[in-house]
Amino acid sequence: MANYPTSKLPDVGTSIFSVMSALANEHKAINLSQGFPDFNCPDELMELVTKYMHAGFNQYAPMPGVVSLREKISIKTEKLYGYRPNPDTEITVTSGATEALYAAITAVVKPGDEVVVLEPCYDCYAPAIRLNGGIPVYVPLALPGFSVDWDLVKRNISSKTRLIIINTPHNPTGAVMTKADMDELAHIVDGSDILVISDEVYEHMVFDGFKHHSALENAILRERSFVISSFGKTYHTTGWKIGYAIAPPALTTELRKMHQFITFSTVTPLQFAIADFMDNEAHYLGLPDFYQEKRDAFCEYLAPSRFEFLPSAGTYFQLLKYDAISGEHDQDFAKRLVQEVGVAAVPVSAFYHNKTDHHYLRFCFAKSDETLCAAAEKLVKL
After folding, report:
1. pLDDT digits over 180-211, tens only?
2. β-strand 114-119 against 135-140: which pairing, if any?
3. Residue 190 counted as domain residue
Protein backbone atom coordinates (compact mmCIF):
# COMPACT_ATOMS: atom_id res chain seq x y z
CA MET A 1 0.00 0.00 0.00
CA ALA A 2 1.29 3.45 -0.89
CA ASN A 3 2.69 5.57 1.91
CA TYR A 4 0.74 8.77 1.28
CA PRO A 5 2.29 12.09 2.37
CA THR A 6 0.82 13.95 5.32
CA SER A 7 -1.65 16.69 4.45
CA LYS A 8 -0.37 20.25 4.05
CA LEU A 9 -3.69 21.46 5.49
CA PRO A 10 -4.71 18.68 7.90
CA ASP A 11 -7.35 20.79 9.64
CA VAL A 12 -9.04 22.03 6.47
CA GLY A 13 -12.10 20.24 5.13
CA THR A 14 -14.78 21.14 2.60
CA SER A 15 -15.63 24.85 2.75
CA ILE A 16 -18.64 25.88 4.81
CA PHE A 17 -20.21 27.33 1.66
CA SER A 18 -20.17 23.95 -0.08
CA VAL A 19 -21.38 22.19 3.06
CA MET A 20 -24.37 24.49 3.54
CA SER A 21 -25.28 24.50 -0.15
CA ALA A 22 -25.20 20.69 -0.22
CA LEU A 23 -27.38 20.61 2.91
CA ALA A 24 -29.80 23.07 1.27
CA ASN A 25 -30.04 20.85 -1.81
CA GLU A 26 -30.59 17.75 0.32
CA HIS A 27 -33.46 19.35 2.24
CA LYS A 28 -34.79 21.42 -0.67
CA ALA A 29 -34.24 24.55 1.42
CA ILE A 30 -34.05 28.15 0.20
CA ASN A 31 -30.32 28.73 -0.19
CA LEU A 32 -29.19 32.10 1.20
CA SER A 33 -25.84 30.65 2.29
CA GLN A 34 -23.44 30.78 -0.65
CA GLY A 35 -22.82 34.24 -2.07
CA PHE A 36 -24.21 34.13 -5.58
CA PRO A 37 -27.22 35.72 -7.30
CA ASP A 38 -30.19 33.61 -8.32
CA PHE A 39 -30.77 35.90 -11.31
CA ASN A 40 -28.88 36.16 -14.58
CA CYS A 41 -26.34 38.67 -15.84
CA PRO A 42 -27.44 41.26 -18.44
CA ASP A 43 -28.49 39.82 -21.81
CA GLU A 44 -26.16 42.25 -23.57
CA LEU A 45 -23.17 40.77 -21.78
CA MET A 46 -24.10 37.20 -22.73
CA GLU A 47 -24.60 38.28 -26.35
CA LEU A 48 -21.12 39.78 -26.37
CA VAL A 49 -19.63 36.51 -25.10
CA THR A 50 -21.39 34.61 -27.88
CA LYS A 51 -20.18 37.16 -30.42
CA TYR A 52 -16.55 36.70 -29.44
CA MET A 53 -16.82 32.91 -29.29
CA HIS A 54 -18.22 32.79 -32.83
CA ALA A 55 -15.59 35.27 -33.97
CA GLY A 56 -12.88 32.78 -32.99
CA PHE A 57 -11.57 34.35 -29.78
CA ASN A 58 -11.24 30.95 -28.11
CA GLN A 59 -7.50 30.44 -27.68
CA TYR A 60 -5.13 31.59 -24.93
CA ALA A 61 -5.42 35.20 -23.87
CA PRO A 62 -2.23 37.14 -23.09
CA MET A 63 -0.93 36.08 -19.68
CA PRO A 64 -1.60 39.48 -18.00
CA GLY A 65 -5.06 39.73 -19.57
CA VAL A 66 -6.59 41.01 -22.79
CA VAL A 67 -5.17 44.46 -23.58
CA SER A 68 -8.55 46.11 -24.18
CA LEU A 69 -9.83 44.86 -20.82
CA ARG A 70 -6.80 46.12 -18.92
CA GLU A 71 -7.18 49.49 -20.62
CA LYS A 72 -10.84 49.70 -19.64
CA ILE A 73 -9.96 48.76 -16.05
CA SER A 74 -7.41 51.57 -16.00
CA ILE A 75 -9.92 54.15 -17.20
CA LYS A 76 -12.59 52.97 -14.76
CA THR A 77 -10.14 53.03 -11.84
CA GLU A 78 -9.21 56.64 -12.54
CA LYS A 79 -12.87 57.69 -12.73
CA LEU A 80 -13.70 56.02 -9.43
CA TYR A 81 -10.54 56.46 -7.35
CA GLY A 82 -8.52 59.25 -8.95
CA TYR A 83 -5.60 57.05 -9.94
CA ARG A 84 -4.89 55.66 -13.40
CA PRO A 85 -2.84 52.46 -13.20
CA ASN A 86 -0.64 51.52 -16.13
CA PRO A 87 -2.43 48.69 -18.02
CA ASP A 88 0.89 47.12 -19.04
CA THR A 89 2.69 47.15 -15.70
CA GLU A 90 0.06 47.45 -12.94
CA ILE A 91 -3.05 45.47 -13.94
CA THR A 92 -3.38 41.67 -14.12
CA VAL A 93 -6.57 39.82 -15.03
CA THR A 94 -6.96 36.62 -13.00
CA SER A 95 -9.21 33.58 -12.84
CA GLY A 96 -11.34 35.02 -10.10
CA ALA A 97 -10.43 37.16 -7.11
CA THR A 98 -9.49 34.00 -5.21
CA GLU A 99 -6.68 33.33 -7.68
CA ALA A 100 -5.56 36.95 -7.38
CA LEU A 101 -5.46 36.59 -3.59
CA TYR A 102 -3.51 33.35 -3.78
CA ALA A 103 -1.05 34.74 -6.34
CA ALA A 104 -0.47 37.90 -4.29
CA ILE A 105 0.10 36.00 -1.05
CA THR A 106 2.36 33.48 -2.79
CA ALA A 107 4.34 36.29 -4.42
CA VAL A 108 5.40 37.97 -1.18
CA VAL A 109 5.00 35.60 1.79
CA LYS A 110 8.04 33.47 2.66
CA PRO A 111 8.46 30.85 5.41
CA GLY A 112 8.34 32.49 8.82
CA ASP A 113 6.67 35.69 7.61
CA GLU A 114 3.71 36.89 9.66
CA VAL A 115 0.48 38.10 8.05
CA VAL A 116 -2.08 40.13 9.98
CA VAL A 117 -5.58 38.83 9.25
CA LEU A 118 -8.70 40.60 10.54
CA GLU A 119 -11.35 38.16 11.77
CA PRO A 120 -13.94 37.10 10.88
CA CYS A 121 -12.44 36.73 7.41
CA TYR A 122 -12.99 35.08 4.06
CA ASP A 123 -11.85 31.48 4.32
CA CYS A 124 -9.15 31.44 1.62
CA TYR A 125 -6.73 33.86 3.32
CA ALA A 126 -5.23 31.67 6.03
CA PRO A 127 -4.76 28.48 3.93
CA ALA A 128 -2.85 30.46 1.29
CA ILE A 129 -0.66 32.01 3.98
CA ARG A 130 0.07 28.63 5.56
CA LEU A 131 0.78 26.88 2.25
CA ASN A 132 3.53 29.45 1.69
CA GLY A 133 5.07 28.91 5.12
CA GLY A 134 3.62 32.10 6.55
CA ILE A 135 2.05 32.53 9.96
CA PRO A 136 -1.45 34.05 10.19
CA VAL A 137 -1.73 36.53 13.07
CA TYR A 138 -5.42 36.86 13.83
CA VAL A 139 -6.83 40.18 15.02
CA PRO A 140 -10.56 40.19 15.87
CA LEU A 141 -12.78 42.98 14.62
CA ALA A 142 -14.49 44.93 17.40
CA LEU A 143 -18.14 44.24 18.17
CA PRO A 144 -20.88 45.31 17.82
CA GLY A 145 -20.07 46.94 14.47
CA PHE A 146 -17.12 44.74 13.43
CA SER A 147 -14.86 47.79 13.17
CA VAL A 148 -11.06 47.66 13.10
CA ASP A 149 -9.28 48.25 16.41
CA TRP A 150 -6.13 49.81 15.00
CA ASP A 151 -4.38 49.87 18.38
CA LEU A 152 -4.87 46.10 18.54
CA VAL A 153 -3.51 45.79 15.00
CA LYS A 154 -0.42 47.74 16.02
CA ARG A 155 0.11 45.49 19.04
CA ASN A 156 0.13 42.47 16.73
CA ILE A 157 2.76 43.82 14.36
CA SER A 158 6.30 42.52 14.79
CA SER A 159 9.61 42.57 12.94
CA LYS A 160 8.33 39.51 11.06
CA THR A 161 5.15 41.16 9.74
CA ARG A 162 5.20 40.99 5.95
CA LEU A 163 1.59 41.68 5.06
CA ILE A 164 -1.73 43.03 6.33
CA ILE A 165 -4.92 41.82 4.64
CA ILE A 166 -8.00 44.04 4.70
CA ASN A 167 -11.42 43.49 3.14
CA THR A 168 -13.87 46.32 2.48
CA PRO A 169 -16.82 46.09 2.10
CA HIS A 170 -16.38 43.18 4.45
CA ASN A 171 -17.41 39.57 3.99
CA PRO A 172 -19.10 38.22 6.10
CA THR A 173 -20.18 41.20 8.23
CA GLY A 174 -21.07 43.88 5.66
CA ALA A 175 -18.94 46.46 7.52
CA VAL A 176 -17.35 49.21 5.43
CA MET A 177 -14.02 50.86 6.17
CA THR A 178 -13.92 54.66 6.26
CA LYS A 179 -11.36 57.10 4.90
CA ALA A 180 -10.13 57.45 8.49
CA ASP A 181 -9.54 53.69 8.58
CA MET A 182 -7.48 53.86 5.39
CA ASP A 183 -5.50 56.81 6.74
CA GLU A 184 -4.79 54.92 9.97
CA LEU A 185 -3.60 51.87 8.04
CA ALA A 186 -1.37 54.11 5.92
CA HIS A 187 0.09 55.62 9.09
CA ILE A 188 0.86 52.15 10.45
CA VAL A 189 2.67 50.87 7.35
CA ASP A 190 4.37 54.12 6.32
CA GLY A 191 8.13 53.81 6.58
CA SER A 192 8.00 50.03 7.04
CA ASP A 193 8.41 47.06 4.70
CA ILE A 194 4.85 45.89 5.40
CA LEU A 195 2.72 45.27 2.31
CA VAL A 196 -1.08 45.31 2.05
CA ILE A 197 -3.69 43.20 0.28
CA SER A 198 -6.94 45.13 -0.05
CA ASP A 199 -9.75 42.77 -0.99
CA GLU A 200 -12.34 45.08 -2.57
CA VAL A 201 -14.52 42.64 -4.50
CA TYR A 202 -17.74 44.24 -3.19
CA GLU A 203 -16.57 47.76 -4.07
CA HIS A 204 -19.85 48.62 -5.86
CA MET A 205 -22.10 47.52 -3.01
CA VAL A 206 -22.03 50.31 -0.41
CA PHE A 207 -25.34 51.67 0.84
CA ASP A 208 -27.12 54.61 2.46
CA GLY A 209 -25.23 57.26 0.50
CA PHE A 210 -21.78 56.23 1.71
CA LYS A 211 -18.91 55.55 -0.67
CA HIS A 212 -16.30 52.87 -0.99
CA HIS A 213 -12.80 53.99 -0.02
CA SER A 214 -10.17 52.10 -1.98
CA ALA A 215 -6.56 51.66 -0.97
CA LEU A 216 -5.81 53.14 -4.40
CA GLU A 217 -7.01 56.55 -3.18
CA ASN A 218 -4.22 56.74 -0.60
CA ALA A 219 -0.73 57.38 -2.03
CA ILE A 220 1.04 55.60 0.83
CA LEU A 221 -1.13 52.50 0.50
CA ARG A 222 -1.11 52.55 -3.29
CA GLU A 223 2.65 52.12 -3.47
CA ARG A 224 2.59 48.93 -1.36
CA SER A 225 -0.79 47.31 -2.03
CA PHE A 226 -2.37 44.60 -4.12
CA VAL A 227 -5.93 45.83 -4.72
CA ILE A 228 -8.23 43.02 -5.80
CA SER A 229 -11.58 43.28 -7.60
CA SER A 230 -14.14 40.89 -9.06
CA PHE A 231 -16.14 41.05 -12.27
CA GLY A 232 -18.08 38.05 -10.98
CA LYS A 233 -19.55 40.16 -8.18
CA THR A 234 -20.07 43.26 -10.30
CA TYR A 235 -21.76 41.59 -13.27
CA HIS A 236 -23.67 38.77 -11.47
CA THR A 237 -21.37 36.16 -13.05
CA THR A 238 -19.68 34.43 -10.12
CA GLY A 239 -19.34 31.23 -12.17
CA TRP A 240 -17.16 32.95 -14.76
CA LYS A 241 -14.38 33.44 -12.18
CA ILE A 242 -12.85 36.62 -13.56
CA GLY A 243 -11.12 39.11 -11.29
CA TYR A 244 -8.13 41.38 -11.38
CA ALA A 245 -5.33 42.78 -9.28
CA ILE A 246 -3.89 46.29 -9.38
CA ALA A 247 -0.45 46.74 -7.86
CA PRO A 248 2.67 48.85 -8.42
CA PRO A 249 5.01 47.53 -11.14
CA ALA A 250 7.45 45.71 -8.84
CA LEU A 251 4.62 43.89 -7.05
CA THR A 252 2.78 43.19 -10.31
CA THR A 253 5.94 41.58 -11.71
CA GLU A 254 6.06 39.16 -8.79
CA LEU A 255 2.31 38.48 -8.86
CA ARG A 256 2.48 37.63 -12.58
CA LYS A 257 5.28 35.14 -11.92
CA MET A 258 2.81 33.25 -9.75
CA HIS A 259 -0.21 33.82 -12.01
CA GLN A 260 1.53 32.35 -15.05
CA PHE A 261 2.11 29.06 -13.24
CA ILE A 262 -1.29 28.90 -11.50
CA THR A 263 -3.63 29.47 -14.45
CA PHE A 264 -1.41 31.31 -17.00
CA SER A 265 -4.40 33.13 -18.48
CA THR A 266 -8.13 33.65 -18.05
CA VAL A 267 -11.03 32.75 -20.35
CA THR A 268 -10.53 34.73 -23.56
CA PRO A 269 -14.01 35.48 -24.98
CA LEU A 270 -15.28 36.50 -21.54
CA GLN A 271 -12.49 39.07 -21.23
CA PHE A 272 -13.30 40.64 -24.60
CA ALA A 273 -17.01 40.70 -23.76
CA ILE A 274 -16.46 42.35 -20.38
CA ALA A 275 -14.15 44.93 -21.97
CA ASP A 276 -16.96 45.99 -24.29
CA PHE A 277 -19.62 45.85 -21.59
CA MET A 278 -17.59 48.12 -19.29
CA ASP A 279 -18.64 51.02 -21.51
CA ASN A 280 -22.04 50.60 -19.87
CA GLU A 281 -21.10 52.53 -16.71
CA ALA A 282 -24.72 52.63 -15.57
CA HIS A 283 -24.53 48.96 -14.59
CA TYR A 284 -21.86 49.24 -11.92
CA LEU A 285 -22.81 52.79 -10.91
CA GLY A 286 -26.34 51.56 -10.30
CA LEU A 287 -25.36 48.59 -8.15
CA PRO A 288 -25.56 50.43 -4.80
CA ASP A 289 -29.22 51.29 -5.37
CA PHE A 290 -29.94 47.88 -6.92
CA TYR A 291 -28.64 45.94 -3.92
CA GLN A 292 -29.85 48.44 -1.32
CA GLU A 293 -33.39 47.80 -2.54
CA LYS A 294 -32.85 44.09 -1.97
CA ARG A 295 -31.30 44.68 1.45
CA ASP A 296 -34.16 46.97 2.47
CA ALA A 297 -36.78 44.51 1.26
CA PHE A 298 -35.18 41.60 3.10
CA CYS A 299 -34.87 43.62 6.31
CA GLU A 300 -38.48 44.80 6.01
CA TYR A 301 -39.69 41.23 5.57
CA LEU A 302 -37.69 40.25 8.67
CA ALA A 303 -38.93 43.13 10.85
CA PRO A 304 -41.56 41.01 12.66
CA SER A 305 -39.00 38.27 13.42
CA ARG A 306 -37.11 37.64 16.66
CA PHE A 307 -33.74 38.14 14.99
CA GLU A 308 -31.63 41.17 15.94
CA PHE A 309 -29.92 43.05 13.13
CA LEU A 310 -28.71 46.34 11.73
CA PRO A 311 -29.03 46.74 7.94
CA SER A 312 -25.79 45.81 6.21
CA ALA A 313 -23.57 48.76 5.23
CA GLY A 314 -22.11 46.96 2.21
CA THR A 315 -21.72 43.66 0.28
CA TYR A 316 -24.79 41.55 -0.46
CA PHE A 317 -24.80 39.86 2.95
CA GLN A 318 -26.93 40.51 6.00
CA LEU A 319 -26.02 39.29 9.49
CA LEU A 320 -28.81 38.17 11.81
CA LYS A 321 -28.24 37.60 15.54
CA TYR A 322 -30.42 34.85 17.01
CA ASP A 323 -29.91 35.15 20.80
CA ALA A 324 -33.64 35.66 21.35
CA ILE A 325 -34.40 32.41 19.51
CA SER A 326 -31.76 29.91 20.61
CA GLY A 327 -28.63 29.45 22.68
CA GLU A 328 -27.20 26.86 20.28
CA HIS A 329 -23.77 27.15 18.70
CA ASP A 330 -24.20 28.91 15.38
CA GLN A 331 -23.15 25.85 13.36
CA ASP A 332 -25.77 23.71 15.09
CA PHE A 333 -28.43 26.38 14.69
CA ALA A 334 -27.57 26.86 11.00
CA LYS A 335 -27.96 23.14 10.33
CA ARG A 336 -31.26 22.99 12.20
CA LEU A 337 -32.45 26.02 10.24
CA VAL A 338 -31.96 24.09 7.01
CA GLN A 339 -33.45 20.85 8.24
CA GLU A 340 -36.46 22.18 10.17
CA VAL A 341 -37.17 25.64 8.75
CA GLY A 342 -36.02 25.26 5.17
CA VAL A 343 -33.57 28.19 4.91
CA ALA A 344 -29.79 27.90 4.52
CA ALA A 345 -27.37 30.47 5.94
CA VAL A 346 -23.70 30.44 6.89
CA PRO A 347 -22.64 30.41 10.56
CA VAL A 348 -20.22 33.29 11.13
CA SER A 349 -18.01 31.17 13.41
CA ALA A 350 -16.80 29.48 10.20
CA PHE A 351 -14.96 32.72 9.40
CA TYR A 352 -12.89 32.53 12.62
CA HIS A 353 -9.82 30.29 12.95
CA ASN A 354 -10.95 29.17 16.42
CA LYS A 355 -14.69 29.05 15.55
CA THR A 356 -15.56 32.03 17.77
CA ASP A 357 -19.33 32.08 18.11
CA HIS A 358 -21.22 35.36 18.59
CA HIS A 359 -24.55 33.80 17.52
CA TYR A 360 -24.63 35.39 14.07
CA LEU A 361 -25.69 33.85 10.78
CA ARG A 362 -24.86 35.33 7.36
CA PHE A 363 -27.61 35.51 4.75
CA CYS A 364 -27.09 36.41 1.09
CA PHE A 365 -29.68 38.84 -0.28
CA ALA A 366 -28.46 38.74 -3.91
CA LYS A 367 -31.70 36.96 -4.73
CA SER A 368 -35.01 37.66 -6.40
CA ASP A 369 -37.67 39.40 -4.34
CA GLU A 370 -39.73 36.20 -4.42
CA THR A 371 -36.84 34.21 -2.94
CA LEU A 372 -36.20 36.77 -0.19
CA CYS A 373 -39.88 37.01 0.69
CA ALA A 374 -40.27 33.22 0.85
CA ALA A 375 -37.20 32.87 3.06
CA ALA A 376 -38.31 35.64 5.39
CA GLU A 377 -41.77 34.09 5.77
CA LYS A 378 -40.10 30.98 7.14
CA LEU A 379 -37.69 32.89 9.38
CA VAL A 380 -40.41 35.07 10.91
CA LYS A 381 -42.12 31.95 12.26
CA LEU A 382 -39.18 31.14 14.54
Report:
1. 999 999 999 999 999 999 999 999 999 999 99
2. parallel
3. yes
